[in-house]
Amino acid sequence: MKFSVSVVAATLFLESALATPGDEKRLQSKQLRHAILRSNLLKHADALVEHARLSNGSRAFGSKGHNATVDYIKRKLDATGYYDTELQTFVYPFSDGTANFTAKEKKYSTEWFTYGPAGNVTAPVVVVNELGCEKANFLATVEGNIALIKRGSCEFGLKIALAGAAGASGAIIYNNADGPIGGGTLIKPSRPDVGPYVPAGSISGVDGVALIASIASGEVVGNIYVDATNEDRYTSNVLATTKLGDKKNVIMAGGHTDSVPAGPGINDDGSGSMGLLEIALQLPKWSVKNAVRFGFWTAEEYGLVGSEHWVVSLTAEQISDIALYLNADMIASPNFGYFIYDGDGNAFNITGPAGSDHIEHLFESYFKDAGLVSAPTEFDGRSDYGPFLDAGVPSGGLFTGAEGLKTEQQAKWWGGSAGVAYDPNYHQAGDVKSNLNVGAWIQCTKGFAHAIATYANDLKGIPRGGKRDAAKKRQISHDRRRNSACNHKLHGL
Ligand SMILES: [Zn+2]
């Protein structure tokens, strides 16, 4: 509807008496929260379900399903005309596979290593000395045989490459604790400076010790069968920045667009990425004082690859222009909790850059005002906020839980089942739409809407000015992080 000239004039007159012109369109928390509708979130979930169908039920980075999700986000954002959008495209090595180890008729429970090569090897199993972190640990008897190596002290990738260098035909790493390793990565796609990777898998500590005892009393021939895909894939981050607002004080929010190969990832992280997308699609109804930027990250499941790639591409000035970063990764867990990243460090003793405390407290009062209990969760950089922490950007976010088990107390607070994982389908084929807790999803999405609207208006409590040292802590954190991604354990050593 168009206003007549006289109505516009009267409106402007009223506004000049009350506030600066344009303020009636200024973003407010309450209005943005009210614009978040269940029906729209569920439509996005339906779209992700369709995307996953394109690649056998997965949206792993660089797959058809994942590319469809990236296109969907970009297209929706472009259609608003409210954002400058950008695809940041790069190549990254993809890897997925399974490993099986059998010896003496026993089929071992075997885990595959990310970046482990495919192959089918039958040979005697030979025990490697010490921890297999040095060339000298591999005796000549290893040649042509399967090297059995104990976990510990150095990266799995180094052990497997040293086994290859010694001429082993395959390698098995057994855990240095009773149970299984619980998912491992060779970290680097190859190590030409050390040696070739050989078909490999890992077994539990109990199985490893028993196998060594068996070898001591006579030759044990084993078979390793690894089915794996290792290939370079093009993939993209999507960045969208409001055309309006102060670009020297950017409010950022991000979530990851990829799933693990095992499933469609509708909670992890369909919930976070689509919650933020819906906020981004409602935001154009208002104007913002500070610019708002959304980051939709690729390949989080391979070690925060997309977010790291983007943050590292920034100049020191571009980093200091980012006032804060909000991360949304898993916000619709079926057996959910309302967890807030512990930015002030008072619960887990890992404190974020100054201002992270303010973000945590803002989320705390959001839940309190809604009459809900919230709890802190460790601020350890195991999702896409890691690279922002390294760059010194105040960060925060919400999380409804992954493989951790709900306590009795938490079941009293939030309902659901004590002694059961917050998301029993975490990183599995069962991470589907029907397993989402939509109520938690809406509540958390509105929490992000509240934080975005609040900070887009007013950065009180967030330190501004002064350059941040982007590189200082990066290596330390990177080493810490690459042993675990996406709130799950993907061990590198
Ligand atoms: Zn995730």
UniProtKB/TrEMBL annotation:
It is an enzyme of class 3 (hydrolase). It is found in: Secreted. Belongs to the peptidase M28 family. M28A subfamily. GO terms for cellular component: extracellular region. GO terms for biological process: proteolysis. It comes from Sphaerosporella brunnea. This is Peptide hydrolase. Residues 237-450 form the Peptidase M28 domain. The keyword Secreted applies. GO terms for molecular function: aminopeptidase activity; metal ion binding; metalloexopeptidase activity. Its EC number is 3.4.-.-. Residues 463-493 are annotated as: Disordered. Keywords: Aminopeptidase, Glycoprotein, Hydrolase, Metal-binding, Metalloprotease, Protease, Secreted, Signal, Zinc. Its cofactor is Zn(2+). Residues 470-493 have a biased composition (Basic residues). The keyword Protein biosynthesis does not apply. SUPFAM superfamilies: PA domain (SSF52025), Zn-dependent exopeptidases (SSF53187). Residues 1-19 form the signal peptide. InterPro entries: M28_fam, M28_SGAP-like, PA_dom_sf, PA_domain, Peptidase_M28. Residues 121-211 form the PA domain. Its main location: secreted.
